[in-house]
Design goal:
6-stranded antiparallel β-barrel; alpha/beta; 18 strands; Thrombin, subunit H; QueA-like
């Protein structure tokens, strides 16, 4: 069953400026921690309104046997392609955003003036592209071809020539592609990593599951819209991007069983949160489905599916910061962020983490 999920807008007097905070540039993490689970962890207790400073491997101390972790198993594709226009040799950069049902890719092209309908491009001898349509927003629809005798899939061909599409605030080159990938990534399709999951190691997950805590997966292919700033003064005027997701019957059954046992459903990341909240009905019952969600969560939203959230520190005035502010409250989140700045936490995709319970 395919659906497009858009939630109704909630009235609020909050503006985009209410989600601003001061962040020294040197606190923007440029590289991942040496070991995934050694990043720092700020534990925020919503009931007591207190914070505790730990390391991510200490997350085990906050999980109960009856609880359940739900993760986003989407896999980041090496979507940044550097090549040339076939007829002129002019350099070009493609950023593959998402594959449409017809097999063509929606693509951000720089410089766009060199990529008109019918133009073709080469990325080494591995990948070739043709612009089939110029969209209203300036993105291009692109038909990709590759040598099927040499590569088993389009993703294998991408891996041979593509680079990981790091966020624009990361200036350093990634030394190892796998560090912008969760250890449980399975299904190719994301243009950005579900970064809250980057802190888990296979060993840590094994320890957590051995202690009885449940584990389930959703898939949401993260788009670059996740980094798009909110430009409107009123947050309710912002148009949220949509992202493809899948929630299986298996994961729904496990969540229901854990709930019956009195356990908490802990979303690993805002992407997982958006999937679960998208498919929950008014009574909080989840429904297996696949589709696209443009759910926009900000203060005033009533959560129906999750009880706790593992999440990184997000950009000022971003929809992700609005989401975590809705899960706690804006004042408490902003104070926690101020504390994180004072304590010199590392911010954003390769940065440290919060556990909000």
């Amino acid at each position: 069953m395919k659906e497009i999920i858009i939630n109704e807008r909630i009235k609020t007097d909050l503006t985009t400026a209410d989600f601003n905070y001061d962040l020294p540039e040197e606190l923007i993490a440029q590289a991942p921690a040496e070991k995934r689970d050694q990043s720092r962890l700020l534990v925020l207790d919503r009931a007591t309104r207190t914070v505790v400073h730990r390391h991510f491997y200490d997350i085990r101390d906050y999980l109960r046997p009856e609880d359940m972790l739900v993760v986003n198993s989407s896999k980041v594709i090496p979507a940044r392609l550097l090549g040339v226009r076939s007829d002129t040799g002019s350099p070009i950069e493609f950023l593959l955003l998402r594959m449409h049902e017809n097999g063509e890719w929606e693509t951000l092209v720089r410089p766009g003036k060199r990529a008109r309908k019918g133009h073709t491009f080469d990325f080494g001898s591995v990948l070739h592209a043709e612009i089939t349509e110029v969209l209203e927003d300036g993105n291009r629809m692109t038909k990709l071809t590759y040598d099927k005798g040499q590569y088993t899939s389009i993703y294998d061909a991408m891996d041979a020539v593509g680079q990981m599409p790091l966020p624009p605030y990361i200036k350093e080159k990634l030394k190892e592609k796998g560090r912008y990938q969760t250890v449980y990534a399975k299904t190719e399709g994301s243009a950005a990593a579900p970064t809250a999951g980057l802190h888990f190691t296979k060993e840590l997950l094994e320890d957590i599951r051995a202690a009885g805590t449940g584990y389930g997966e959703v898939t949401l292919h993260v788009g670059l819209g996740t980094f798009r700033p909110v430009k409107e003064e009123k947050i309710t005027d912002h148009v949220m991007h949509t992202e493809r997701f899948v929630l299986t019957e298996e994961t729904v059954r496990e969540i229901e069983a854990r709930r019956r046992a009195g356990g908490r459903i802990i979303a690993v990341g805002t992407t997982t949160c958006r999937v679960l909240e998208s498919v929950a009905d008014a009574q909080g019952k989840l429904h297996a489905m696949e589709g696209e969600t443009g759910i926009f969560i900000y203060p005033g939203y009533k959560f129906r599916a999750i009880d706790a959230l593992i999440t990184n520190f997000h950009l000022p005035q971003s929809t992700l910061l609005m989401l975590v502010s809705a899960f706690s409250d804006r004042e408490l989140i902003m104070k926690a962020y101020e504390e994180a700045v004072r304590e010199r936490y590392r911010f954003f995709s390769f940065g440290d983490c919060m556990f909000i319970q």
